[in-house]
Design goal:
The complex is a heterodimer of chains A (about 550) and B (about 50). Chain A has 16 helices and no strands. In chain A, helix 3 packs parallel to helix 5 and helix 14 runs antiparallel to helix 15. Chain B has about 50 residues and is mainly alpha-helical. In chain B, about 75% of the residues lie in helices and about 0% in strands. Chain B is built from two helices and no strands. Classes of the chains: A mainly alpha (about 550), B mainly alpha (about 50). Chains A and B meet through helix 5 and helix 6 of A and helix 2 of B.
Chain lengths: ~550, ~50
């Protein structure tokens, strides 16, 4: 029943001319994907410049550059910008670009809603970043917005809450679009268990988003009414409970962690088989592991707040549930390693980022298991050990996967090959500097240095100086990433083939490079042998 | 005959072949998922308010 994969696309309908019609009014998934990625890169550099200022202040003990309150603004805004502005939109951008091509659909299921999902974001972040210029300054109570602290700041909290509402609306609409696209727009023959893992990872992530973003919206709305309308949801003096906010926030916040890492798992599961020249080992196990991680992510939220005080049974439950997540995560790590085992490996830049992901994300995972231990967590809580842990997960995990994905797919997007030399220099510079930046923070945390402080004991001076040097080095390394993108898109003379990579499988590689503005306007005929997982028996 | 017609218009996964029909199905899915999101919000609010 297999047919040759046919390439059906319409060369005659090119992109609309004029900036306004092409970009502002766009309903094209590729253009919207590009806008998401450019937006996310911009936010990555804004959030990164906040981080550079933080590391500059922490370069040596004592107060050097900023006032303590402004330091708190920096840490709060760095977290918000990086999570909601850089990581999440980058994954949505990758989904926009790749999902329709991967499942053989002409576009996202709801293209106009897709436009709206994106264009909400610049307004949301303009609102958020404008708080730096307000009287009273930007929010300074941490990205988690714990009351009563967050309510004691100025009116910037209202701007923060409204911008979170906007981001939430954008995320929910994006998630709905992805679910509708994957469930309804797949080409005939593209069964659920033949879909690329990246598509699976996003389908599961979209369900997580729909479940938890409304919870965040509700929680921050209650903060708003507590601040401005006299309610006492989280105000102990009025009969409310500030700890309840923490429970509600982390019921959103922990699945949010997986929202930021499951698509990264999907990307790595695309890259490693291509450069190992082998099919992904244990395709079905990978899908079930994704679903298992997503399910478990709803049952572990209180491990973020062991020290607030809860019954022993609760602490034991959340400890064991958290440790349970290591099992499906371990399945994934072992399957990536087994995919590489006896493969015909080559080490182009996407593969380097993927291998670095597997190693460094696993380090972040292990420190996560350490943090899951209740007695140990009482020591680690709110120290730099936690900062080191989640930066290993989110920088060498999520951000490295995004960078690997850009290297992997940019030839398909632009039609040009990137400079492998530039890519490798960027990779090695990033991977060394990121470890210089974050590894010493483990030692600082274990020695007792608290997070979110602008000054510290001289005992912590050496590791902080090393960490800051790594931070500046890592920040500077990302200019190479920009250089690679600009070179590839505008100056590269080396044209990409349709397949781009020697043994890349999947519908997206049957399209020419660059991918035409409209692709698969007629559903492709599926040839199982051309799919990455067309003949899955394991 | 009916079965044959069914085969002609439906893929093995029972997804309609025409892009218009798929978009219509996708819109239904989107409304359902929007309802799920609204239900999550409602459940959360009730959980807090009735506590």
């Amino acid at each position: 029943m297999a047919h040759a994969a046919s390439i059906e696309h319409d060369e005659h309908h090119s992109a609309p001319s004029g900036f306004f019609r092409r970009w502002v009014c766009s309903t094209n998934h590729k253009d919207i994907g590009t806008m998401y990625l450019v937006f996310s890169l911009t936010m990555f550099f804004i959030g990164g410049s906040l981080a550079m200022t933080i590391r500059a202040e922490l370069f040596e003990p004592g107060m050097q550059l900023v006032q303590p309150y402004f330091f708190n603004e920096l840490t709060t805004m760095h977290g918000l910008v990086m999570i909601f502005g850089a990581i999440m939109p980058a994954f949505v951008g990758l989904a926009n670009w790749m999902l329709p091509m991967m499942v053989g659909a002409p576009d996202m299921a709801l293209p106009r809603m897709n436009n709206w999902s994106f264009w909400i974001l610049p307004f949301a972040f303009a609102l958020l970043l404008s708080t730096f210029f307000m009287a009273g300054g930007a929010p300074a109570g941490g990205w988690t917005m714990y009351p009563p602290l967050v309510l004691q700041g100025g009116d910037s909290i209202a701007f923060l809450i409204f911008s979170i509402h906007l981001m939430g609306i954008s995320s929910i609409m994006g998630a709905i679009n992805i679910i509708a696209t994957v469930l309804n727009m797949r080409a005939p023959g593209m069964d659920l268990l033949k879909m690329p893992i990246f598509v699976w990872s996003w389908l599961i992530t979209a369900f997580l988003l729909i479940a938890v973003m409304p919870v965040l919206a509700g929680a921050v709305t209650m903060l708003l009414t507590d601040k401005y309308f006299g309610t006492s949801f989280f105000n102990a003096a009025g009969g409310g409970d500030p700890v309840m906010y923490q429970h509600v926030f982390w019921f959103f916040g922990h699945p949010e962690v997986y929202i930021m890492i499951l698509p990264a798992f999907g990307i790595i599961s695309e890259i490693i088989p291509t450069f190992s020249r082998k099919p992904l080992f244990g395709y079905k196990a990978m899908v079930y592991a994704l679903a298992c991680i997503a399910f478990l992510s709803f049952t572990v939220w209180a491990h973020h707040m062991f020290t607030v005080g809860m019954p022993l049974g609760g602490e034991l439950f959340f400890m064991y549930a958290t440790m349970l997540i290591a099992i499906p995560t371990g399945v994934k790590v072992f399957n990536w390693v087994t995919t590489m085992w006896r493969g015909s490996l080559s080490f182009e830049t996407p593969m380097l980022f993927a291998i670095a992901f597997v190693i460094l994300f696993t380090i972040g995972g292990f420190s996560g298991v350490m943090l899951a231990l209740v007695p140990a967590d009482f020591q680690y809580q709110d120290t730099y050990f936690v900062v080191a842990h989640f930066h290993y997960v989110l920088v060498t995990g999520a951000a490295f996967a995004i960078m690997g994905a850009v290297y992997y797919w940019i030839p398909k997007w632009s039609g040009n090959m990137y400079s492998e030399t530039l890519g490798k220099v960027h990779f090695w510079s990033s991977v060394i500097s990121v470890n210089v930046l974050f590894f010493p923070q483990h030692f600082l945390g274990l020695a007792g240095m608290p997070r979110r402080i602008p000054d510290y004991n001289v005992a912590f001076a050496n590791f902080n100086m090393i960490s800051s040097i790594g931070g500046f080095w890592f920040g500077a390394s990302q200019l190479l990433f920009i250089g690679m993108i600009v070179h590839c898109v505008f100056f590269s003379k080396k044209r990409a083939t349709s397949e781009v990579w020697e043994t890349a499988h999947g519908l997206e590689w049957t399209l020419p490079s660059p991918a035409p503005h409209h692709s698969f306007t007629v559903p492709p005929l599926i040839d199982d042998s051309k799919l990455a997982h067309g003949d899955v028996t394991h | 005959m009916a079965a044959m017609q069914g085969h002609q218009v439906m893929s093995p996964q029972r997804r309609p072949d025409s892009i218009e029909a798929r978009r219509a199905a996708a819109r239904r899915t989107a409304w359902i998922m929007g309802g799920v999101a609204a239900a999550c919000l409602l459940a959360f609010v009730l959980h807090i308010v009735l506590r």
